[in-house]
Amino acid sequence: MTDDNPTAREIFEVCVCLGVQRAARGLARRYDEALVPAGMTSGQFAILSALLRDDPVPLTELAGLLGLERTTLTRNLAPLEAAGLALSTPTSDRRVRALTLTNAGRDRLESALPLWHAAQADSARRLDAGWAAVRPALARLA
Fold this sequence. Notes:
The chain has 142 residues and is mainly α. It has helices at 8-14, 16-35, 42-50, 59-66, 70-82, 103-126, 131-141, and strands at 57-58, 86-90, 97-101. It contains seven helices and three strands, in the order H-H-H-E-H-H-E-E-H-H. Helix 2 packs across helix 6 (103-126), helix 3 (42-50) crosses helix 5 and helix 4 (59-66) packs across helix 5.
């Protein structure tokens, strides 16, 4: 590849960002398909699983954990709250909302776990280097 005038194919073949985005979209589609019987998407699974804890978690903290903007998380939480799977409550600082997983959310997450485990196993098989090697590399990119 010449640095000054690369072709579209050359950029596609070497661009880390494009490669990771493409892989992420394909991976999300596979997880979404796997989670259909549980009635959730991979993004909803990520949110619900991040709420699987004993104490409420502030919205900002959850957004940071998931790598989402607060507004994006708020938008994605709306259907989960409407379905009674997650609950948002004000804290002593009324500017801060805390989130908890409801009993219905725990039940839904429990029904999704076997489907998620199967998607995990499939994804792990597809990784030649193994997830243990890939995860730290992706974390460095993030």
